Amino acid sequence: MMKHLLFVLALFSACATALYTAGPTHRDGVYQRGEALTPTPTKRELTNAERLRRSLPLLPPKRRSGPLAPRASCAPNTFTGKIEVRSFSSGSVLGRVVNWSLSSLNFLGPDSDLLVQVTVPPTGEATEIIPLNDTGASSAFPFYGAGGGTLGPGSPSTAGFGGVNHSPANSPPSSANTESTIWIVDPASYEISVQWTNSGGSQPSTTIAYNIRNNQFFLVGDLAAYNAAFTFPASAVVSTTCRAIVVQSATDPLSCAPSENEISLSGMEDLPPSGRHRLLLTSWEEIYHP
Description:
- By secondary structure, the protein is mainly beta.
- It has one domain (78-288).
- The chain is built from three helices and 17 strands.
- The protein has helices at 2-21, 48-53, 223-229, and strands spanning 26-27, 30-31, 77-87, 93-97, 105-106, 115-120, 126-127, 129-131, 143-148, 158-164, 178-179, 183-185, 192-194, 207-211, 216-220, 235-241, 277-288.
- The longest helix has 20 residues, at 2-21.
- The relative contact order is 0.14.
- Mean pLDDT is 69; it is low at 5-12, 14-34, 65-72, 239-278 and 283-290.
């Protein structure tokens, strides 16, 4: 009996000692009061300076920015449309370029309107206009451009519109004194302008003018000099491009911001009251969009 009691006491003492000397315990991952916390060592990443001192390769660069935002396509867009002239003040349609002379307004009905195709570069470079239904078209002159002499300040010289052969942008006239890559279309506002290059390489300020008495469009470097030299003056055309599916639905004359190169001819009895006109490439249909 005594031996059995001693054995039980010894077993109890051994269990108590084991519980006392055991490491700290956690119940369900919760720290218990009285436990000694043992920090978990973490590996510190060496800086590039420390890596250089130890002859180790440098760390790869860290990207602090998010993914790139979507960007607009840099590919040009190609459209077909008509060239239209409107009164600047009222927005009424004065006419559209005719398909048989390319330098006059059409008063014969919509079947005689000139239909054109133009590719709009995304960065504003000069481009060409292709007439699609020119009744006098020739394979040798497939572009809608201009031909003439030297334009510039103090000169009444002009360049008339018509079918021309190809010429590079910002280059002097071809052997026929014509240029094709003269049209500049702003890819954001769609405003259109023209830049003529003289035979010597100079590029004068170029105005699109319209003589309503002769029903004729042309380019001029000095409109005041032209009007001083001729009996019937011309007016500067405020030129923009507007994209509209139907011409008649584009009723807002200020839907495209005009440029400021215009003069007033309100004193002429046979001119519209405003004496100011707007040239628009309208009735656009986008035929290619990447």
